[in-house]
Structure formats: C-alpha cells, structure tokens
C-alpha cells in the first residue's frame, strides 16, 4: 500500500497504520507487512520497514578500470615526460641522430631503428617486429618476442633480458650480460603453425570449460554478448595491469619466472575468453546452420573454440598489423572473463 499524498505512520499492536492527507484525515488501514518506499518518510516505529531507494554502486570491474586508466593517463600518457610511452604496432620508424625518446618504448610490430646519436631514456620492450639499435638505451631492454639487432654503435646501460638469441655486433656495448627469460609463445613461429596451435589450444580450453564448468562458460559468453563495450573496457584494464606487472618483474626486479607466470596467466585468460567467444558464436549458430547439433552443447563449444582460435591466428598473420589485431581481439574476451568471475564471487557472497 503506497499512498499518493503526504502521510505519517502510527504504530498499532496489529501493525502499522498509514494516515494520509492533512489534519483530520485519518483514512488508512493496518498492515503488518507494509513496505515504505518514500525517501522522506520518518519512521519511529521499530516494526516499520522503510526501504529507501538504493543507489547502485560501481562494480569492482568498473572501479578497477577507472583507477587503472587514471594511473595510466597520469604516469604513461604524458608523451615527452619522464613517464611517457611510445607504442609501435606497424610501419617503419627511425629515431634520428640527436633525437631523444623519453619514457618507455614498446615494439609490438613493424620496424624501429635507433640511429647513431639517438637515445631512449626509458625501458625498451620488444614483443614483436624488429628493433635495430645503433644508439643509446639508457634503461633496461626486454626482448620477449620479435627480433633485436644490436649494431656497432649500440649501447645498453640497463639490464638486458631476452627470450631468444639477439643479433649482436662485436662492438655493441652491454653493461650487464643478457639473461634469458620466457618469451611470448608463438611470436616467432610460422603463421600457419601459429594459427593451428592457437586453434587447438582454444579448442582444448573450450573442452575443459564445457565438460568441467559449463555454467561458468555460459556466464562468460553472456557477459560478452550483453556488455561488449564494458567487457572491452575491463579487458583494457587487465591488459595494462598485466603488461606493466610483467615488464616490471622482468626488467626491474629480474624476476624472470614471476614475469613468465604473469604472461602465462594472461595467455590462459585470453584462451578462456576466446572459448567464451566460441560458445556465444555456436550458441547462436545452434539455432540456425548448426541446429542438428543443438542438443550437443559441449561439442558446439569445442567447435566454436577451434574456429575462434583459428580466426585469431589468421589475424595475427596479417603483415605489419597482425600483432595489434590479435591484441585487440583478446581485450573484450579477457574483460568478459573478469566480469563473469566478479559477478560469480558477488553472487556467492550474497
């Protein structure tokens, strides 16, 4: 019972009476189960339950995204500052004589050449593409994928970690010997082999979830389908945190195995997310072209995982921009996994 006029509450032995209107108007009736929905109602009776409108607080995923992006903008988004960053995904780039790059340089594709007389003051991370060094690298150098070539004028003052042999000229100067760390799996494989391995790995992840936790796989697929942009935003937050943590562990603390564990966890998240993409895709196709397999959802999930992994592998094989496309294809699925996991934990707490 929710009156439409101003009202007050009076407690009675049989419950609570709502008295509406002005003075002298005592219409109303007793209701032991009355729920008061007015935010302005003042109730002094211990038997009256007042349910004021509740405000939806931001989910943990949204809060993580806001904090992470704000930190990234403040620390890494100021180009030219001590915390600036340069990300290269494709094309040919040259840092010429006398030019100085401040902050981090991340090479994920294309080719970057540091000419003699140039300098990079921050850390240099190579996960794909080609880096040719003939200048100064004042910070650490992490070679996790792609190709690194140290020319005769190269000088690296920071710590050097490498996941594969580097091409090094005899006159190149390294203050500390290079140490080996785990690299990005598949970064230097043949594109066809990489696509097939990725397809099989995603199909295996789909099978593991479909036979072990089918309801979790479905919830991840639902999170991706119902909130693709929120999932992409959450994926960006997770990727920034994981990349920064892995690089910091590898080149800052020298914790190679810890950095490898972070990369492995990121790979597992990506495979799980792509499995969720396959589940969502085949669930839709099960109502159409794959209707004959609609009663076999586990098989459909495995088929979807294989197709999704193969598609991502083929995207990775695109010249110049493949690494960037593969990274973009992983963001929303990773975010969907994070959002579904957060929702399940919240449901268990309630």
Order of helices and strands: EEEEHEEEEEEEEEEEEEEHHHHHH
Number of domains: 3
In percent terms, what proportion of residues is strand?
Answer: 15-25%
**H/I helix tally:** 7
Structural class label: alpha/beta
For the termini, the CA-CA separation is: 28 Å
* Biggest β-sheet description: 9 strands, parallel
CA radius of gyration: 29 Å
Instruction: Give the beta-strand count.
Output: 18
The averaged pLDDT comes out at: 75
Percent helix, as a range, is 40-55%
Structure description:
The strands form four sheets. Strands 5, 6, 8, 9, 11, 13, 15, 16 and 18 form a nine-stranded parallel β-sheet that branches. It is elongated and about 65 Å long. The chain folds into three domains: 7-47, no CATH class; 83-180, no CATH class; 191-345, no CATH class. Helix 5 crosses helix 6 (297-316). Residues 1-56 have low confidence and may be disordered. It is of the alpha/beta class and 350 residues long. The protein is built from seven helices and 18 strands. A hairpin with a 2-residue loop joins strand 1 and strand 2. Helix content is 44%, strand content 20%.
Describe the SSE topology.
Layout lengths: L6 E6 L2 E6 L14 E2 L12 E2 L9 H16 L9 E4 L3 E4 L4 E2 L2 E4 L3 E4 L4 E2 L3 E10 L2 E2 L3 E10 L4 E2 L3 E3 L4 E2 L4 E2 L4 E2 L10 H22 L1 H13 L1 H25 L3 H30 L11 H20 L5 H28 L1
Parallel strand pairs: 3-4, 5-8, 6-9, 7-10, 8-11, 9-11, 10-12, 11-13, 12-14, 13-15, 13-16, 14-17, 15-18
Antiparallel strand pairs: 1-2
Helix pairs in contact: 1-4, 2-3, 2-5, 2-6, 3-4, 3-5, 3-7, 4-5, 4-7, 5-6, 5-7, 6-7
């Amino acid at each position: 019972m929710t009156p439409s006029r101003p009202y007050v509450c009076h407690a009675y032995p049989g419950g609570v009476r709502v008295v509406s209107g002005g003075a002298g108007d005592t219409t109303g009736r007793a209701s032991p189960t009355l729920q008061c929905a007015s935010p302005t109602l003042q109730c002094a009776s211990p038997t009256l339950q007042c349910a004021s409108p509740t405000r939806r607080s931001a989910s943990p995923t949204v809060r993580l995204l806001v904090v992470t992006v704000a930190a990234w903008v403040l620390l890494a988004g100021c180009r030219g500052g001590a915390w600036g960053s340069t990300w290269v995904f494709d094309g040919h780039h040259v840092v010429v004589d006398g030019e100085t790059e401040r902050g981090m340089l991340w090479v994920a594709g294309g080719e970057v050449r540091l000419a003699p007389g140039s300098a990079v003051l921050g850390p240099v991370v190579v996960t794909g593409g080609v880096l040719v060094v003939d200048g100064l690298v004042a910070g650490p150098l992490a070679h996790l994928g792609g190709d690194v070539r140290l020319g005769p004028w190269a000088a690296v003052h920071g710590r050097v970690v490498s996941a594969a042999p580097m091409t090094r000229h005899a006159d190149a100067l390294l203050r500390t010997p290079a140490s080996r760390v785990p690299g990005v799996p598949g970064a230097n494989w043949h594109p066809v082999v990489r696509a097939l391995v990725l397809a099989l790995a995603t199909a295996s992840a789909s099978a593991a979830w479909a036979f072990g936790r089918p309801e979790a796989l479905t919830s991840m697929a639902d999170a991706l389908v119902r909130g693709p942009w929120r999932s992409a935003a959450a994926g960006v937050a997770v990727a920034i945190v994981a990349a920064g943590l892995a690089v910091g562990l590898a080149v800052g603390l020298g914790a190679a195995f810890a950095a490898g564990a972070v990369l492995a966890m990121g790979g597992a998240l990506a495979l799980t997310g792509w499995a969720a993409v396959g589940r969502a895709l085949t669930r839709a196709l099960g109502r159409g072209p794959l209707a004959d397999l609609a009663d076999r959802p586990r098989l459909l999930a495995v088929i979807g995982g294989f197709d999704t992994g193969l598609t991502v592998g083929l995207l990775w094989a695109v010249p110049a921009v493949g690494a960037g496309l593969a990274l973009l294809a992983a963001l929303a699925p990773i975010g969907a996994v994070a959002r579904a996991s957060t929702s399940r934990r919240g449901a268990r707490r309630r």
